[in-house]
Each structure stands twice: as C-alpha cells, then as structure tokens.
Amino acid sequence: MKVVVLAGGTGAAKFVRGLVRAIDPRDLSVIVNTGDDLVWWGLHVSPDLDTICYELGGLLDRQRGWGRLEETFHCRDAMRALGQASWFNVGDRDLSTHLFRTERLRAGVPLSEVTAALCARWGIASRILPMTDARVRTIVTMDDGDVPFQEFFVRRRHTGAVHAVRFEGASTAQPAPGVIDAIHHAAIVVIAPSNPVTSVGPILGVLGMTEALSTTSARTVAISPVVGSAAVSGPAARLMATRGWPTTAAGVAMAYRSFLDVLLCDVGDAALAGDIEKLDVHPVFTNILMSDTSMAEHLAKETLDAGAH
Ligand code: GDP
Fold first, then answer.
1. Percent of the chain with pLDDT over 70
2. Which of 1, 36, 125, 209 has the most other CB atoms within 10 Å of its CB?
3. Is the beta carbon of 200 within 6 A of some atom in ligand 1?
4. pLDDT greater than 90 at residue 309
5. Full-prediction pTM beyond 0.85?
6. 3 state DSSP class of 206
7. C-alpha span between 269 and 257 (Å, rounded)
8. How far is the CA of 270 from the CAs of 231, 267, 288, in angstroms?
9. Which of 152, 128, 131 lies closest to 140 in space, CA to CA?
10. With contact defined as beta carbons under 8 Å apart, do 251 and 240 qualify?
11. Is 10 close to ligand 1, i.e. is its CB under 6 Å away?
12. What number is the average pLDDT over the span 35-39?
C-alpha cells in the first residue's frame, strides 16, 4: 500500500518516525516544503528536507527536533568571531549537507536529484521529494515590512505581529518530478501534523497540487497540529488567524477542505465534530500527541485505519 505524506519539518518528522514502523518504508513517499529554504553563508539550506532526511536516515537530533546527532558548532562560533551572522544554527556535520547540495545545484543538478543522491548515501529506503525544483520563498509581512520565513521563525523567535504570509514563486512552480504521480498512485495521502500556513501552505501553492489532491482516488487524511485553541508547538495558531481560519482543529479542516476526507483531532476536541462535519470532513477523535516513538507509531496506525475506511 503506497502512502504519501505532505510534510514540513519537526511535526512531520515525528509522524514519519512512527509511520515507517507501521508500513514498509519503501512504500512511503514524502513531499516536503521548501518555502523555508534560505541561502546562509552562501550555501543553499533546505531546513524541512534536511529534518525529514535526517529523521529517516537515523541522523536527526530528536531532542532538538532539527539538525544532526552528535553535532558541534565550531564553524558557527568561528563565523561569529569573524563578525558574521550566526543567528541561524548550522552545525558542523550539517554543514557538509549544505556544501554538498550547493555544489551540486551550482553544477546544474535539480534539487530533487540532489535530495535523491543524499538519501541514497544515507541508506534511506523511502522516497523524499522536494515539492518543486523551482525557487519558492515564504515571506511574512510584519509591522516593519516583509521578512523571509527563517528570519521570522528563528531570528525573531516567531514573535511580533504577523499581517500576512505569501509564497513567492509558488503559483508558477512546477511540482518536482514524481510528486503528482506519487499522489495519483497512493492509497492514502496524509497531511502531516505540520503548520497549515507555512509548512503545508507552500506545498498546496505549487501548480496543480490541490487539483491532484482533489482528483486522486487516494483517501486524504490530515492530523491536526492544533489541540484546543493552541498549536502543540510553534506559531501555527497565530498564523492560521491571518488566513481568517479558526485557531482550532475546525480551522485545520477549513484549510484543507477542498480535498480532505478525514481529520484526526485531539480527543478533547469532540465538541468540534459538528463544525468539522459541516465542512464535509469526517473527524476522528483520538490521542494526537506524539510524546515518544510508540505513540507516533500508534498515531500512524490510526491514520492508516482512518484512510482505509
Ligand atoms: P517546522 O517546519 O519545523 O515548523 O515543522 P512542522 O510544520 O512539520 O511542525 C510544526 C507543527 O507540528 C506545529 O504546528 C505543531 O503544533 C505540530 N506538532 C508538533 N508536535 C506534535 C504532536 O506531537 N502532535 C501533533 N498533533 N502535532 C504536533
């Protein structure tokens, strides 16, 4: 049974950690947000792709939720001593990924092929696809103007009023090779518990994506990243408000309503059943917190069950 996951970074990594314990990893394709990508010290960094690859390659520092195991930060410290920007944390091992990627991209190799090469080196059996090989940039409009996503998220620690979020380049970006095909050949498409605005939003913004999700015969199942009226972590709820969506699981259903069949919501949110059903989405109430790997595996199995009905 082929499974496709639309993924951001940390929330999605926790979910796929459980999923590859529930299915054959070779049956999994992960389509990953690249709107967060940035050029840092002249290098192309793809934070969400790296988080998913590191997770599936057994390289992720799960404590932090990003970056590599047994990491050191000597280069960052030395750059800081040179008076260079050091607010974005690139570790020494992590640096090798960005050096490799940047060198290949400069040689004209598309991001999807560079990612496949990295996955092969790391022995990853699943297919990890960037949403597009084109450049898409998530831009956040704040009181003092437009800032790229990482500037908002990391440098400003997602504080400050957000007025709008847009995905530059998305509407003309072609999906990466294999993306649309994977969606059409899947039995289940899962929208990971990722930020609906800045992690899943850019993926849905790529040309033809929502059409593929609406026309596939696969069941589409999302896991809410929101419990009650707050995100499990990060600024998802606040960003959802900028779209005019309720900052609850019902707002997540609203974000995905054009293609979504089932939404897994927290068991404490059962009072939202009517609101979600009104959007033509079937809610399933369960424990959606992944405090450890066995809970993530349990959630993955429930997601597969929900998609099978
Ligand atoms: P980012 O690019 O690192 O922000 O990655 P994601 O968008 O994939 O992950 C962040 C989202 O994951 C946040 O909106 C969180 O609310 C959500 N999240 C984190 N841990 C959990 C969890 O255990 N369960 C659920 N349901 N959502 C989670």
1. 100
2. 36
3. no
4. no
5. yes
6. coil
7. 18
8. 17, 6, 13
9. 152
10. yes
11. yes
12. 98
Kindly indicate the confidence band of residue 224, based on its pLDDT and cuts at 50, 70 and 90. very high
Calculate how far, in angstroms, residue 192's C-alpha sits from the geometric centre of ligand 1: 8
Domain ranges for the chain: 3-135+171-308, 137-170
Q: Maximum Cα–Cα distance for the chain, whole Å? A: 58
Whether 148 and 134 have beta carbons less than 8 Å apart is answered as no
Reported as a single tens digit per residue, the pLDDT across 81-112 is 999 999 999 999 999 999 999 999 999 999 99
Q: At what angle do helices 92-106 and 111-121 cross, to 10 degrees?
A: 140
| Pocket flag, ligand 1, residue 191 (CB < 6 Å) | no
Whether 11 lines ligand 1, by a CB cut-off of 6 Å, is yes
CB 308 within 8 A of CB 220: no
Q: For 108-161, how does the pLDDT look when each residue is reduced to its tens digit (9 = 90+)? A: 999 999 999 999 999 999 999 999 999 999 999 999 999 999 999 999 999 999
Nearest CA to ligand 1 atom 20: 11
Residue 278: half-sphere exposure toward Cβ, Cα within 13 Å: 9
In angstroms, the CA 216 to CA 186 distance is 8
Is there an atom of ligand 1 within 6 Å of 307 CB? no
Query: Looking at domain 3-135+171-308, which of 3.30.360.10, 3.30.70.640, 3.40.50.10680, 3.40.50.1400 is its CATH number?
Result: 3.40.50.10680
Q: What is the pLDDT of residue 233?
A: 95
Q: Given CA atoms 113, 10, 168, 145 in this order, what sign does their dihedral have?
A: negative
Residue whose CA is closest, atom 11 of ligand 1? 194
Closest CA to 136 of 94, 160, 165: 165
Sign of CA dihedral 87, 164, 8, 270: positive
Cα 291 to chain center, whole Å? 18
Taking a C-beta distance cutoff of 8 angstroms, is the pair 202, 34 a contact? yes
| Residue 52 identity | I
> What DSSP designation does 171 have?
G
Q: What is the pLDDT of residue 280?
A: 98
